[in-house]
Amino acid sequence: MRNEIQQAALISGIGILVMVLSVPIAEFVIFPELIDYNNAENTFNSITENRVLFITGIFLHLITLICDVVVAWSLYLFLRPVNRNFSLLVALFRIVFATITLAALLNLVSVLNLIQNSDYLTAFDHSLYSKALLSVKNFNLQWSFAFTFFSIYLILLGALVYKASYVPKIFGILLVIAGLGYLIDTLRSFFFPAVTMDYIMITFFGELVFMFWLLIKGWRVQVLEDGS
What is the DSSP letter of 26? Predict the structure, then answer.
């Protein structure tokens, strides 16, 4: 029977894998088909005609948020032998990220409310299309802001992984690099939105590489050190 640490590694790997599969479908397949950021009316009509698809995108994000909580908990257990308090702090940063993202996701839920009551609302408000598109933009902005906390989470996670004797140190380094990449890109989107830094996306794969290790070898580790 696998011990708690091994089970936590496996759960973490599976949770990250589900997130890796869920978010890209919503953000790169579903939403681009429905949202035209230059035309509020087209966006409103497209979402109205493809309501189920839009809801699917919302729930894919919701599944990801649930996995965020699960992964925060399981990685806390996995890395607790290194330093219990520091591992808890790392988990809390991911929980904060998930909480802010959930609040951002409610903007997309509000779009559904506008669509479902469009016949009633248009009689009193002719800016309905603009409100729907603004809600979508609010989601993107608030989700982007949440990545500030995710960036710090990855940096701290990398430091913790680097200290773990049962995890190759290269994964700690890759996670720190990923966190710095996310942080730079997030700050750029707020302070220098006109600047393009597509090349920095190469740094984002640290958590993905760590996921593969968790799924392939992490669930078989032998932990010898005690938490502090």
Answer: I
27, two tokens: 């953000």
Question: Could you tell me which of 25, 24, 44 has the C-alpha nearest to residue 34?
Answer: 44
First-residue to last-residue Cα distance in the chain: 26
Q: Rounded to an integer, what distance in angstroms lies between the CA atom of residue 32 and that of residue 213?
A: 32
Query: Which residues are within 8 A (CB) of 35 and not within 5 positions of it... i.e. 6 or more apart?
Result: 43, 46, 47, 133, 136
- Tokens standing for residue 126: 């002719």
User: Could you read off the pLDDT of 117-176 as tens digits, one per residue?
Assistant: 766 555 555 588 889 999 999 999 999 999 999 999 999 999 999 999 999 999 999 999
Helix, strand, coil shares of the chain, percent, nearest 5, are 80, 0, 20
User: Which residues are CB-contacts of 49 (< 8 A; sequence separation ≥ 6)?
Assistant: none
Task: Tell me the pTM.
Answer: 0.90
| Look-up of token digits 């559904």 | 112
The HSE-up count of residue 208 (CA atoms within 13 Å, CB side) is 8
Q: Which amino acid is at 123?
A: A
